[in-house]
Amino acid sequence: MMSQIRSFFGFKRQYAVVGATKNTSKFGFKILTWYINHDLPVVPINPKEEEICGEVVVNSVKPLVLALVENQDLPGHQLSAADGLSILFLTPPRITRQTLEDISSVPGFETVIKGLWFQPGSYDQAVLDKAEEIGLSDRAIHEDECILVRGEAGLSSANL
């Protein structure tokens, strides 16, 4: 699993947190602030918010993937210099599975998605099957791995 964790991080990588929230007691807030505190370019994904922790929120991951495929920026996010996208999921498995479906509907998605991190509680076998079906299972971190526990080692092993 450490090789996937190392590959999740990259020098010019863009990151997204699906399930980011303003609620300071939830992991969607704690993990988003982890990225911010590590000066990593992160896009919070939440369909109900406009801004979290000073970051412009995108309502779904699909426009983010499309912008990266087309080498475009989004309002509040400079994406054109990114070498790809690593996505962390904090959503219930049903939403995670639907998000993977949305990602796979973008032509060229497989060229920009560099990593998927399924936080504990965000995946089930159907999610893992969907990641396999769309050809991203080799880029997926799961097995109850938490970025708040293993992220430091991942950054270090990626020389960031």
Number of domains in the coordinates?
Answer: 1
Q: List segments where confidence is low: pLDDT < 50 over at least 5 consecutive residues.
A: none
Helix content: 25-40%
How far apart the termini lie comes to: 18 Å
Strand content: 15-25%
The name of the CATH architecture is 3-Layer(aba) Sandwich
How many DSSP E strands?
7
Number of helical stretches of at least 4 residues: 7
Radius of gyration: 14 Å
Order of strands across the biggest sheet? 2-1-5-6-7
In one word, what is the shape? globular
Order of helices and strands: HEHEEEHEHHEHEH
Largest sheet: 5 strands, parallel
CATH superfamily: NAD(P)-binding Rossmann-like Domain
CATH class: Alpha Beta
Structural class based on helices, strands and sheet pairing: alpha/beta
Fill in the CATH topology.
Rossmann fold
Round the mean pLDDT to the nearest integer and report it.
Answer: 94
Protein name: CoA-binding domain-containing protein
Domain CoA-binding: 13-151
Organism: Australozyma saopauloensis
InterPro entries: CoA-bd, NAD(P)-bd_dom_sf
